[in-house]
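Q: I have 105 residues here and want to know how they pack in 3D. Can you give me a structure?
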Amino acid sequence: MFPVTRPRRLRRSAALRDMVRETRLAPTDFIYPLFVRHGKGIRTEIGSMPGQFHLSPDTLVDEVGAAVEDGVRAVLLFGIPEREGRARLRGLGRRRRRCRPGCAS
């Protein structure tokens, strides 16, 4: 049967709690997802994901800088295609389009 009393010896002081803590999260543990769209000066909110935005390469630099200041060390970039529709379904297609690096200059 389950014990009637629950020993809390490991919760008495802050020092003991810190020593036996199982999970510690810090900003360095997070990966920040960013959604990049072709253009300039773009920062539009994604309706289905509050707090996330479509960013152009020039605004992306500012966003990454703010994340680094907050202690986030990793970002994951998702590229949004310029054209919607069938070109998106074909993947790279015949012309072997490549992702362009985001130039903020």
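Q: Anything worth noting?
A: DSSP finds three helices and four strands in the chain. The radius of gyration is 23 Å.
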